[in-house]
Every structure is written in C-alpha cells, then in structure tokens.
Design a protein that fits this description.
Helix content is about 50%, strand content about 20%. It contains 13 helices and 9 strands. The protein has helices at about 1-5, 15-35, 75-85, 85-100, 115-120, 125-135, 150-155, 155-170, 185-190, 200-205, 210-225, 235-245, 260-274, and strands at about 40-50, 55-65, 70, 110-115, 140-145, 170-175, 195, 225-230, 250. It has an 8-stranded mixed β-barrel with strand order 1-2-4-5-6-7-8-9, surrounded by 5 helices. The structure holds ligand C2E and calcium ion (3 copies).
Amino acid sequence: RARMTQIPARGFQLADQQALDRQQKLDRDLRQAIGRNQLRLLFQPQVNLRTRQINGAESLMRWEHPELGLISPAEFIPIAEETGLIVDLGRWILGEACRQAAHWPSPIVVAVNVSPIQFQQTDIVATVEAALHRSGLPPSRLEMEITESQDLVDAGRVRDAMWRLRNLGVRLSIDDFGTGYSSLSYFRDLPFDTVKVDQSFIRDRNSDADRLLLSAILELARKMGKSTIAEGVEDEATAAWLAEAGCTSGQGYHFSRPISDLELTGLLEVERRH
Ligand code: C2E
Ligand code: CA
Ligand code: CA
Ligand code: CA
C-alpha cells in the first residue's frame, strides 16, 4: 500500500500510528458497510441560474459508522481508492443512484461521482449499462462526474470508455475543473458535456485577476458548446454574478445542502405545482 510505504522509518510518531490504525479500521469496516446498510446517498440540487429551477442533483455518499459516527467521503473515498474497494463501492453507488433517480420527474438528471480508478480497473461501461437497465433510468438522465487528473488524458482506456459512455447517451462532466494540470487539453482530447468549475474559483473572486479567470473559463466552455455548473455557491451575490457571466447552473448551500431522496422529491413536487 502506497500510504504505508510513504511513511519514513525515522521520525515515526504516535500520531502517525493512530492515523494508520484508523485507516486500517475504516478499510476493514468499509468492506462490510454495504451489507450492513450503513451507506446512503444524499442529493444536492443543481439549479438553473436563469430560471432558478432544479434541473438535477449530485449524489454524495454518507457513511454512518456504528462506533465512529458520520464519516466524510473526503476521508473514506481515498482509502477505498487505495485498496481497490472503490470498484465494488462504485458499482453499488451507480446502481443505487440510478434506482432512486428513476422515480424523479423527467428530465431531472442525477450526477454521480466516479473515480478514475473505476475507469482503469473495471469495465465501467458494462457497470453503467447494468445500472441503467435494472433501474429503467434513461441514459440522458445520468451524468457522470469525473474528477480532473493527469490520468484522464494520458490513459487511452479512459478516453475510450468516455466515448463509449457518450455513445450510450450518458452525460459526462469534468469535476473540480481548473485544479488539475491539463484543463485546457481536455477540450481538445475528451468528449464531455459539462464543465464543473471547482469551488475554489467560485469563492475567491476577490481580485480582478480571479474574476477574469473565472469569466474566461465560462466563456471558453460556452464557445466550445459545453454547459457549465459552479459548485460551492453560498450566497445570492455569487449566484447573480455567475448568472451574469453566463454560467448555466449552480450548486451550493445558497440553494440547498445535500438532502435525502424523500426531501428532494418533495421539493420537486412543490416546483411542479407552481
Ligand atoms: P465534490 O465532488 O467536489 O463534492 C462537493 C463537496 O462540496 C461535497 O462534499 C458537498 O457537500 C460540498 N458542498 C456543497 N455545497 C457547498 C457549499 O456551498 N459550500 C461548501 N463549502 N461546500 C459545499 P462532500 O459531500 O463531503 O464530498 C466530498 C468529496 O467526496 C466530493 O467532492 C467527492 O470528490 C467525494 N465523493 C462524495 N461522494 C462520492 C461518491 O459517491 N463517489 C466518489 N467517487 N466520490 C465521492
Ligand atoms: Ca462532484
Ligand atoms: Ca472532487
Ligand atoms: Ca470540488
């Protein structure tokens, strides 16, 4: 395991040992978490910035650990990626997200986070086809969020899978856009529908340079025919600025926190009646 070998022989601290113990415990327990019903998905609404109507929701994992309480995906997803458990976990997530979204009114889209490892170590296309087939969700109502990373462009396997998914009619989104190395080459090399601008760009609009950079990303995406979504929208000033700058959608605490399937269905029902 990479994480273990990274720890230097000298200077090994008690704190390191405790962190390692926790990781190993989480790894062990995560293997049983699916079967023991400790995992669930929450959904965070994605809102059209012009009409302010919900046009989709991102599925976000939650793990209710019996002793340790609620554990953040920011902690357990990297462990699952390192141990390969992300493959089984990712299959469960896709199945579950499609199953729940199939009950939402059309054309509400479910956006599911997928790890680059799922592209490298499994036939992700077969997994997606199975999830769609079993749930009856139309492919156009599934969007896969792929975090930008060097591997995306380098690996022909990933690119090939992205084309096949696109041919199925599934939507593809580049997550955390602007934080990786090769953001601009994606436009040339990869098929995708949506640019999801990382929340660091949304929050730090302090200098002229920050604002110019964000506007330029939004404009480039629009000119390349991509839709855009901003994550981490926390106030109305930000939402209004983004709408003015031509950003398609927004997601963040200003609109809603991640909520249960039941709560989301309720919100959609209220919107439908108005
Ligand atoms: P992400 O994909 O960048 O997701 C956005 C994170 O920002 C979520 O954290 C979300 O709850 C949080 N967030 C939403 N609105 C706001 C806001 O207005 N302000 C701020 N400050 N934060 C906001 P969360 O749910 O803890 O997820 C953390 C990360 O874990 C995600 O980052 C994603 O990379 C990963 N993750 C979550 N669920 C899954 C999953 O099912 N599969 C995979 N592979 N990764 C997942
Ligand atoms: Ca995401
Ligand atoms: Ca991410
Ligand atoms: Ca992000």
